[in-house]
# Entry
Amino acid sequence: MRKLLTKEFLTRNETLVAIVIIGFCIVASIADANFLSIPTLTDLMRGGIVLGIFAVAAMVVLISGGIDVSFTAVGVFAMYTTTLFLITYAPNLPWYLAFLIAMTIGAILGAINGVLIAGFGLPTLIVTLGTLSIYRGFLLTFVGSRLISNLPPEMRSFSRLMVVRGTNSDGSFYSLPWAFAALVLVVVLTWFILHKTMLGRAIFAIGGSVESARRIGINVRGIQFFIYVYVGILSGLAGIIHASMSRVANPFDLVGLELSVIAAVVLGGARLIGGVGTLTGTLLGVSLIILVRNSLIVVGIPSTWQSVAIGSLILLGTGLPAWQAKRAAARAA
Amino acid sequence: MSRTTPKSNVLAAPEVRLAVIAVGVFVLMAALSPERFLSMQNMTSMAFQFPEFAILALAMTVTMLTGGIDLSVVGVSNLSAVVAATILTRFVDPGLTGAGMYLWLGIAAAASLVVGMIAGFVNGIAVAIFGLPPILATLGSGLVFTGFAVALTDGSAVMGFPVGVAWLGNEKLLGIPVPLYLFAILALLISFLLTRTSFGFKIRMFGANPLAAQFAALDINKLLIKVYVLSGGLSAMAGMLIMSRANSAKADYGSSYLLLAVLIAVLGGVNPYGGYGKIIGVVLAVLSMQFLSSGLNMLQVSNFARELIWGLLLIVVMIINTRNSFRIRRAKRTVLKT
# Structure
């Protein structure tokens, strides 16, 4: 139906988001002289770590033509289970091993999604809606529903590793944790997979048309399975980073974030019908969502209007290209 | 993806399977705690509980029949409830009774219904005219509607209504809870609309094959807008029911109902790709869910475990449904070969 989604529209969507971000920053810096400063930037970057990793994961699924809403539940499951395991059995385990455990748990949960979607051929939205409540329900029923506030020392010390740290003229602190490197790594790895490997081409091909992909000899089921496992691993990573940075493992956290994450990815130009999506767009989308969340008040909009703003952005950001595509299709017909 | 089932195999129809599940769950729960599950008190409390999310499931069903989805149902129902609640608290003295009260109740109900239908109209325009995928359109608009409700109330609950408000959600008529009447009437109405009118026929036709519907010269834009307006109106009614039962309105009531509404529709045999679905299936799914939920409640299973079981149920039913359609397709293929 919307096969006329050429590169032009794609770039337009990304530039649109970039323009909105720049416009937002200009208005904000006029309203508040302190807005354009290093602390705002580090706040943005720190806020973008967990959201950004989730968004990259969600983007890969969208490119393949599916949708995953269970990744937050995977993240919180991996995070809480790992923390509980560390506290009870191995409090002094190095942080990278803790991360490995969380990512393994994420991979297992992702594999369950993968089996249901690739193996049974069920619709992705329905499956992940189901597993969202299964993972969360299982976590809260059988693993625990109590907040863990005394994190293992290794996880705490991970969150204290800073790239830069400083004090402003007005005495407030700013810092950028090393955890940001995780986002960079994830972005680079995903870029490599998507654009430098056959696997990546296959993911785009499936998103473009499952049937064509099958006919040129792509192992559709295998690729789909890989995608959901990969998403699980990234979600586990995002979860454990979230816990160590907020210095508390809360089993009620993260779930509820999934729609904002998908919104960020879609704002960045990824298409629900699959086959289209860029990392640049995704990161721009994440930045915009975080800016709106953190700084709406700076441009004079009360924070009670936050979800109206985000919702309108989604409608505009996705409506404009969809409408253009529809008109172009009508003209071509 | 057509799901035509051969008439000879009765069990292949999802509705029949669902009826078996509903009865099975009922018998199981009755066997596990007979004196409490089968009590009159439990029956009435169940009949008070399910209509609100069942109406949301009806709204979800009509959009799913077109191959779409409405993720804004909870947002719409809260916004319309908040509008009604604001009218009732700003302009009406809580002590008001008699004709004056009924007049204001009527105004508030009408306003909330209109708000719901406008919200549905916005969704319809976004999907039909602008060509947004329904998931995105209703995801975005749902945030906007919830946001308006938050902005109207500053995020707190609105309460202090005249006494008449509580009637809809808490009273009984001839021994049967009022919400049950509302749900029964709406279910019959929608069922009639879907099976006995050209509107319903067009909905299923479009859902089964949008391209064919377009070539059959259906006014698709008008059809889709009508469907989303209907969904918005139903959501508004669910909103009023929730408001009446809670005797207050808040922007974030019933947030778990969204998943539940999708779940019930899919469980009820509605094909999420569009084209197939029966209201009787949705009703049976609602009953199964409520029996399960009340029964688990009596066995003192936590809310979280209930969430787990709902999710499992959804996946298992989906697996069974697609397995069946696979088998039929394979059977057809072998028939063609021979």
Observations:
- Strands of chain A lie at 162-167, 173-177.
- The CA atoms of residues 54 and 235 of chain A lie 6 Å apart.
- The longest strand of chain A covers residues 162-167.
- Chain A is about 70% helix and 5% strand.
